[in-house]
Structure formats: C-alpha cells, structure tokens
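Good day; I would like, with your permission, to put a structural problem before you. What I wish to show you is a protein chain and, alongside it, a tokenised description of its three-dimensional fold. I would ask you to consider whether the tokens describe a fold that such a sequence might reasonably adopt. You will find the record immediately after this paragraph:
***
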Amino acid sequence: MSRSTSAAMENRMNTEDSGKGTGSSWRTMEKFDARSGKSFRKWAELLEDYFIVDNLVRDEAKRAAMRTRLDEESREFLKSRTPMETGTFECCVETLSKKYNGQKAKEAASMRARAFKLDMREEKFYASILEYADLVTATSILKNEELLKHQINMIHEQLKNQEELWMKLYYQNKYESLIELATDLETSWKLICEKKKRKDHFSRNEKNKGNDKSQGEKKGYSKDAKMKQNIKCFNCSEMGHYKTNCPSLKEDKARVESKRIYVEEEASESMEVMRETNKMLKRMLENKVYNRGVKVKQEKKKVYLNKENKKTENEKIATLRTAVEPYEFYLPVEGKDGILLSGLIDSGATRTIVKKSTAMRYGFKQNRQTMTKIVLADGTMKKAVGDFKTQFKIIPDILVNCSIVVVEDSELSDSKYSLIIRSDLLKATETILDYGNKTIIMCGREISHLTVSKEKENDRIIAKRAAINSEKKVEELKKEFKNVISQSKDDIGRCDIEAPNFEMTDKQPPKIPRYPVPFSKKEVIKEQIQSWLKANVIVEDKFVKWIMNLVITPKSDKTDRVCLDSRPLNSRLISFDYKTPTLKDKAEILNGAMYYTTLDLVQYFSQISIDEKSSKFLGFRAPDNTTYRFVRLPFGVKHATAIALRIINVVLQDIEEAFSYVDDICIATKGSLEHHFSKVREVLERLSQHGLKINWKKCQFACEEIQYLGFLFSRQGQEPSPSSTEAIKNFLQPKNLRSLRRFLGKVNFYKTHIENLARIEIPLTNLLKKKNSLFEWNEECEKSFSQIKKELMKTCRLIMPDEKKPYVIHCDASGNAHAAALMQENSKGLKPLRFYSKRLQDRKTFVPAVELELRCIASSLSYFRQ
C-alpha cells in the first residue's frame, strides 16, 4: 500500500465519520514495526483503546485505520492472506498475532539474560538490578508473586560471587516489590563499599606511618617536620596536613561518622550472627551432638518404660518399635518437558541428585571442573559429573527452583526413581513426613505420593516360567544339536550356500590411501587377525591387488570391532538388490503367538563363503605389512546384508513359523508347547544341514513374550519395547535439522501405536521445509516435542484382529492432517488394532468439512486394507 493510498484512506475515514463524533487520536500512535520482534497482540490492544477513545466502532473503519499504522512488511503479509483470515478486525488481529507473536523479542531477552552481569559500581548497581529484573520478566510466563519470587531467585544467583549480599538475600528474601528489593540491596552494597574503603584507607595510613617513621629516623628529623614541608591539603590548599585531617572538615565528618557507624554496626551484627549460626551447625554435625543423651534398647515388639523412679530427670527414656518392612516416600515430579519423574525422598542426602540422561533433557552440559562427590543418608558416596539449576513441579501445583547435582545413570541404577530429593527442598516447602499415617504435608497441605511394594516384581518373568517348564526339552536339544552350537570364539560354521559373484563396474583397483593404525590398537588388530586365521575367514596372499585399510569401531558393550574399510570397493561394486519381508508382513505370525524362540547366528557374515574371484577384491594389509584377503563375507561390503538375508531365507524356506532378520531367527507358534519345540527342532535341523552355527548363550527358548526389532510381542498383542521408548524419552532437544530428522525417524517407527501423530508433529515437520534458513526452535516446537514424548509413554498395546468380528474405524480430519483408528470390540470394549495419521499439503483454497471427512475415510480404508 503506497503513501498516497494510505492518505486517501484516512481522508475517506474522516469524511465518513465526521458526523458521528469520532476522534483521530489513533493517528498519534506509533506504527507497528515487524522487525522489532515485539508482540503484535499487545500493540493491537493499545490500538483498540485508542479506537474506544475516538468512538471508532465500524469494523471496516477499524481495519482501514489499523492498516495505516502498519509498516510495509506487515501490510504485505496481511494482503497475502485469504479473505477468511482478514474478513473482520478480530480476524486481522488474530492472523497478525500468530505471525508476530513476540518470540524474537523473547529470545533476544533470553540471550541477554544468560550473558547479563550485574554492574557492581555504586552509581550503577540499582539500575542494573532493575534492568536484569526486566529481562527476567520478558523471558518468564509467571505473574505477580510467583514472578517476584523468580526475580529474587535469579538476582540471588547473580550475586553468588558477592558473599555478604548473597548471604543477606539467602536469609531475607521476602520483599513486597522489586523496588524494595533493589533499594535494600543498594543500601547494603553502599555500606559494604564504604566499609571496604575505610579499611583500605586505614591500611594505607598504617603503612605510611611506618614509612614516615623509618625515613624520619634515618634523616634525623620528626614526622611533623616532614609533613609541614611536603604535605598539602586538597581541601583548603594549606601545607602541613592531609585533606582527611583538615580542621574545616572535622565537624561535618564527626556527624556523618556517627550515623554511619550506627547503621554499619547493625548490618555487621546480623552478618556475625549468620556466620556463628553456620559454624555452630557444622560443629553439631561433625560431633553428632544431636544423638547424645538418648538411650535405646533394641528388642523386637517390646517397649520398656521406667516404672521405678531410680533414674535421674536428665536421663531420657526412649521407646523403640522395630520396623518389619521399610517404607519409602516417592514423589511424582513433572519436569520442564511435561514428563513425569519419580523422586525418592532422602532427608539425609547432602544434595539433590538426578540421573545424567534426565538432566541432559533439561539443557545440562557437563563440565569437568565441577565434578565432586556427595554423600547419601546411608553413607554411600556418589560421584557427580556436574550440577545445574532448573525448575520442576511437584504434583499437583508446587513449583520449585533448585540446584541439582548430576550423576551417571549407573550410580542410580534403581529403575524405581530418577531423582533423589534432599532436605533443602523439604525445608523450602515446609515438608512434614508422617511415617505413622504414611502421609506427606507440603506447603500446609497433604500431597499424594507413590509407594513401592516389596512383593516380588513380575517384570517379564512369564518368559522365565516357560523356560523352566521346558528345561528338559531345551537340554535335549542342546545334546542333540552339538554340531550347531558354537563352542568357542573361533568356532564358527561354514554355510554350504556360497555368496554370488561380485560384479564390478571396473576391476582395476583405485588409488587407496593408507591410514596408519593407532599404536594402542595394534595389538587388538593382531589378535583379530589370528582369530580370523583360526576360523578360516582370511588367508595370506602375497600378491593381492586390492589392498584396503582396517578400521576399528566400538561395539555396544564398549569393546572394539575390527572391520574392513570397503568404501573404495563399494564405489565400483554393482548392488545386489533383495527386498526382505517387512515387520508388517510378519506381524500376523508374531502377534498373538503362544510361544517364542530366538536363535542368534554366531558371526553370521563370516559363515558365508565367497568364491576366489570375488575374494581377490577383499585384500588388506596387517600392521606388520603382511597382506591377506577375505574368503568369507566381511562386514562393510555394500550388499553383504542383502546377500545374508537371501541366504538365510533360502535356508528357512517352507517353515512358515520361522523367519529371520539378518542373524536373528525368530520362531513363533500358536499351538501347544510340543508343537513349538517341533518347529524349533526343524529349524535346528536346517541349520545343521547347511553348516550354520548359533551362539547358545544369546538364544531364548519357549518364551511367552519377547522383544524383537524394537517391539514387545506376546499373546495379548504388540507394543513398543521399553528400552526403545526410554531412548526416545531421553532424547535431547534437537539443535539442527539432522538431529530433528533422527528424532522424527525414531518416533515414526511407532506411528501405528500413537494416535493422531501427524497432527502433533506439524510444528516439527514445518522446520524441515526451511532447509536454507536458520533453525528456529520456538514454543510450538517445544510443546510438540514434549507432547510426542507424553503420547509415546501412553502408547497402548495393539491387539490381533479377529476375522469373525466386525471392524470399526474412527476418523478425524482437519485442514492439515488426517487421522484414524481401526478398532474391534472384545469383552473389555473397543480395542485398537492400528492407528493411522497423515499430514496434508498446505491448501490455499477452502475445502468443505464434509469433503475433508470423506477424504479421510477413503485414505484410512486404503491404508488398513490388507
């Protein structure tokens, strides 16, 4: 919109509203600047106040007036919107508020607050406190008293290097307003600075006295004589005395000094009380004074009372009740991401503790300089990797700001809790632990808590029961198929099905640079080469042409894996395409089975032979310059996985209850236990016929539920495995597109278990569209990120369909996503079979709701169709 158009619009509004008593004070309002990053909604609220003053009520006039007060960028944005988004004044305000929500200004304030340091100069200190408090207000969603408490805590943190001010705010943190706080701190700081100046001045005078005396003795005349000759007063310009000893200032200084000393004595006196209190508490803890004077006789279920008056009044009688079962309090705690944690109350712990995996979700960054040790109530030591400050909520509505120590996950191996709550938090919330009634009172009201039963946990023990009942049959299989079981690390089989020939685009070797082997890893490579030679995986070849490097990669158990760096070969190798059946194809076999058995093929790739021509492309050099070549399929070749899948599928063909994913063979049956073992025997016979061997320690037999390929399968149905959901729960906030894609890839693997996932992911998938722009993580992204984790924690078990019962589809459609749930009714009501969700392309034209719902029904039927 040009300036002439804007002026014409104003003239038109003046003409139309001239007879209606409207004013024009809204023209004096500052124009909205889109680049400032400020919130449009706040600006619009002020504009509406101007309209009320001017008696401007017509919607069209209000829209036109608003457009004249917009800058060019916001006007162009409003012009590009659809008529539905700009039809009324409220619609215009809502559209612009979504675009200019003040997030940039909030992020800028957050960055400034993180880097802000209080200006400790006396004349700047008061203004610096108010400036920092404004930044805290801009970055916080709290209001009124909660905001003031948050500001006090943040200012307290800023003063951690000023011991006296920090202690003052620690013991006196109740203020009615921010001005009162700033004034109190400014007064205290001026007193501290004045005290320091006097102390420094006194030190200089004492030093000068000593110097003057020594110099006077050397030269043979007194100090007074020297002062009369060399000293000039900067107040009265007379010789013979300092400005501080000027007679004209003595009277004024005496009056000021008397007032100052009175105020300072009060401040210093309170500080001395604080220090003495801390020293006394330390002495009590070191000497264990709190345990003196109490005599306890321990005997189960007996109470001794002093019926005879033979003891003195100073002796205290204690009764003891023996605890049969320990009782522990667990508090439900909600973190910043909205995910619930379980916190164990330990009033004797020196610091509040949290697992490292949990702390990383809240922005913790490890710093080696902060590593310390902490002591729990039972005396055990925990090694800390750092600490950080955060806020969490004790359910239902108690917000707590505290400093938490971070330890490795292995230090808190108990899965019942992720957090240990210490006594300072209990003191801040005025907590009362009533073990008699088993209640917790915080902030004057009872708080619900969790308890852990001491009964034997039924954690996946169903599978163990099945194994115990079938122990004899498993032992029979072990004796019968000794030739299939690997007896040592170097005892691997050799499959009679050979890998296909390697087809190359160019058989001449490229120039392959040689990478030096780290000295510390040379022994590892030598041991691996000897193991390969014993297992007939490699042979020595003095004239092999294709000589590639060996690389070392870490395994999941933190040991080293030696592999062939076959990237030069892969660039010239023609792929061997083989599409293996997906988990969806095998879900019918896995879901609802009565028994499961898994077999692990030992070093499966090394059991597959390759022909001599192909072996010539797989050479490498040892650290002692001896050259070898692989005669078995090595790990790292481009099509090695496809070849291995094809071979194992050939071995297991015609056995419908068995299938494999690379080296993991799964056998699932829906009949009796005898029928299951007959199928296991059939599979073992096939492996024996083809010369393959298994790792007996990693095999599981006749389990009633099993974790396989990221899912937990049982006769009740299918659900995500706990280890996988825990990994997603601990996933850190993405910092770039690469980490965001990793997170969405993990989540979408379980999309059939999460209802309406596509709609929840919209703020995150929008970031993927901005490939060439900055990665901007806003509040909507954070809400989506947390909501996805919550939904994943609530994922339900999907049941197997019953072909005799009818199916029910629940659909939901909107302008940006489709969602549906395929369900069947059983004795407990409707239960889900699968979930479906899909994001739609952005539409510029209006689509009726009926059409959206019909399209959703059609796409969900197409998705669920077998």
About this structure: The two ends are 56 Å apart (CA to CA). The chain has five domains: 3-101, 106-197, 330-447, 464-714, 717-864. The longest helix spans residues 178-219. DSSP finds 28 helices and 28 strands in the chain.
